[in-house]
Amino acid sequence: MASNESKERAYRKLESSSLLQQTMFRYMLEAQAASEEGKLAWVTSGFPVEIPLAMNLGVSYPEQYTAVVGSQKVGPEVCGFAEELGYSQELCSYARAGIGSTDRPDDSPLGGLPEPQVLLACNNICGTVLRWYEAVSKLTGAPVFLLDTPPVQRRQPSHHREYVRTGLEELIDFLGEEFDTSLEEDKLQEVASNSTKAIDLWTKSLEACKHKPSPLNCADRFLAMAPVVSMRGKEHILEYYEALLNEVEGRIQQGMGAIRDEKIRLLWDNIPPWFSIYKFFNGLAKRGVVFPADTYTHAWTGSLEGEDILNRMVDIYSNVYLNRGLRAKVDKMAGLIEEYHLDGFVMFSVRSCKRYSLGQLVSKDLVTERTGVPGVVIEGDMVDSRLFNEAQIETRIDALIEMIE
Amino acid sequence: MREKVGIGIDVGSTTTKGVVINSAGQILASSIRPTGASANDAAKAVLDEIEEAHGEATEQPVVSTGYGRKLISIADREVTEITCHSLGVHHIFPDVQLVIDVGGQDSKAIRVGSEGRPTDFELNDKCSAGTGRFLEVMARVLDVPIEGLGPLALQSQNPCSISSTCTVFAESEVISQISSGESPEDIAAGIHQSMAGKIASMSKRVGIAAPVVATGGVALNQAFVEYLGKSLGEDISVPQEAQFTGALGAALLSIQ
């Protein structure tokens, strides 16, 4: 219905989103079933999930769940449950919403996450996850396993790699003892291969956004990444990523962008404000602003295939975006701006996420110096909408657009 | 033939300003009034006043700016105060490199590029420290009218140290300074020094380059400008039209 499209919304909905919904529904059902069988692990977003999956455990992602809390606009209430327990408003809102919903699942969206039997935290994304999971452990009785991945500044030293590898071996022992099972090499190969295929398809969809007009906008990617975050390793998600890539390539062939009238291309840095994700990005789409790239959804990359999968895991999971120094972040942003032909960048300083937001004022200047394009820092939060001041943010972004125009 | 004019309305959090300019960019009429509860009513009243002062109703499109720029019905186009202040000050001081605008509820530092366009900017965070509101609260604590706070500070030889940059905590701090016998002059000077320090550090984030021009209602406070100059290590110019540079920038865009 191309002729009607110009009268329609500035933002084009993806047809593959119904398959995405079905995929996520399956994720929830599988987690529920695993919990009932006594085999559910809660895991952090950057955890080497291929190991618990290969050991036949189900998984739930509290970060994905708390993003849902945010998108359902009940962040302040659910964070409030944790605050009533004595947690500070300064604590990460994912952690607050996670602890709050564990304490009061019946008052939380979807009745909270299914009950876990183990809690698997990897501190490659931040140190708060360990304390968060310890708080959940007190509430649920499930034991915590920490995979410690020290930050990587430049090249990762060999003793550092050995240390992380030992952590992975300890993880296998821990899960083996908890669930009276063992890890089979064939199964790990299969799961790792599924992860790699999903990440490969996902990366192709991301890279397709180098085209003008960009076939995907920021909100599209933040929703479409859900399976690669929470179900990588599962074969059935490949169907979704094939459908997404197909749709993306179709849009490129037809010269159709994610937004109706693309004028300005920007980079997004950090987690989005989940409670306002459509309003925020679609509002800018009406003014011809599209975000063909962001630092967040590009974080799940890299192949796990090879002779020694544990070594590949050490490489991939030690070197995630948030586990590297400021120099790597600046390189990544400048690289995305150049490769995706972007006109400027928006850095969301998330009050909750110190690990992601630290250094943004400095990196803003460095990125502008390197690329010559202007940027702006806006402040708010990903789940706690009390910390998001729309009028102030609008003025900053309007001024950035005026500078580019 | 009627002369072509430009009209800009700056709807700030505390006051609404309007100017009419001719094609040479000279201000023909201006008006300022409290914004009050309705940004729209204030903007309409200011438009009536400048049209009356100018002597004739105009057909020229109205460009609005300021926090209330999207709230008013009489505007044909809205542009952020960052772009408008930059253009307005550049019109008066063509060499300006850095504009520091301190209004009722926000403060901003703007690096000005060629043709008066902003190249980088910083705004205060979500708090009233470093804004006119901070001075209003402090004037009330010291029991002096807001216009009297700057002159009082200028009498001080030995400013108090006000360590808190939060308006609420600084208020408690000032009350304890009063009860410990510090003089109102020294306290007033400490208040200005603290605020100037906060704005100077925000300005340093966009890079200090002379000439520096201060605008907004707070730029009319001589004590503040002196302390800001000391904090930045630069002389600071204040245009006569310090409160009208946003409206002037909007009017320049209206006539283009």
Can you put this structure into words, describing what you see?
- The complex is a heterodimer of chains A (405) and B (256).
- Chain A has 18 helices and 8 strands.
- With 405 residues, chain A is α/β, with parallel strands linked by helices.
- In chain A, helix 9 (185-207) packs parallel to helix 12.
- The longest helix of chain A is centred in the middle third of the chain and has 23 residues, at 185-207.
- Chain A is globular, with a radius of gyration of 21 Å.
- Chain B is an alpha/beta fold.
- Chain B contains 8 helices and 10 strands.
- Chain B has helices at 39-54, 81-92, 132-142, 146-154, 167-179, 184-206, 222-232, 245-255; strands spanning 5-11, 15-22, 27-34, 62-65, 77-78, 98-102, 107-112, 118-123, 212-215, 236-237.
- Chain B is globular.
- The mean pLDDT of chain B is 92.
How are the SSEs ordered, and which strands pair?
The complex is a heterodimer of chains A (405) and B (256).
Chain A: H1 2-5, H2 17-36, E1 40-43, H3 50-54, E2 58-60, H4 62-71, H5 75-84, H6 93-103, E3 118-122, H7 128-140, E4 144-147, H8 158-179, H9 185-207, H10 218-224, H11 226-230, H12 237-254, E5 264-269, H13 277-285, E6 289-294, H14 309-318, H15 326-339, E7 344-350, H16 354-357, H17 360-371, E8 375-380, H18 390-404
Parallel strand pairs in A: 1-2, 1-3, 3-4, 5-6, 5-7, 7-8
Helix pairs in contact in A: 2-12, 4-6, 5-6, 6-7, 8-14, 9-12, 15-17
Chain B: E1 5-11, E2 15-22, E3 27-34, H1 39-54, E4 62-65, E5 77-78, H2 81-92, E6 98-102, E7 107-112, E8 118-123, H3 132-142, H4 146-154, H5 167-179, H6 184-206, E9 212-215, H7 222-232, E10 236-237, H8 245-255
Parallel strand pairs in B: 1-4, 4-5, 6-9, 9-10
Antiparallel strand pairs in B: 1-2, 2-3, 6-7, 7-8
Helix pairs in contact in B: 2-8, 3-5, 3-6, 4-6, 6-7
Give the N-terminus to C-terminus distance of chain A in angstroms: 31 Å
Q: How far is it from the N-terminal to the C-terminal residue of chain B, by CA? A: 19 Å
Our Rg estimate of chain B from Cα atoms comes to 19 Å
Percentage of residues in helical conformation of chain B: 40-55%
Number of strands of chain B: 10
Give a quick account of the main beta sheet of chain B: strands, pairing sense, barrel closure: 5 strands, mixed
Q: Secondary-structure element sequence of chain A?
A: HHEHEHHHEHEHHHHHEHEHHEHHEH
- Determine the structural class of chain A based on helices, strands and strand pairing: alpha/beta
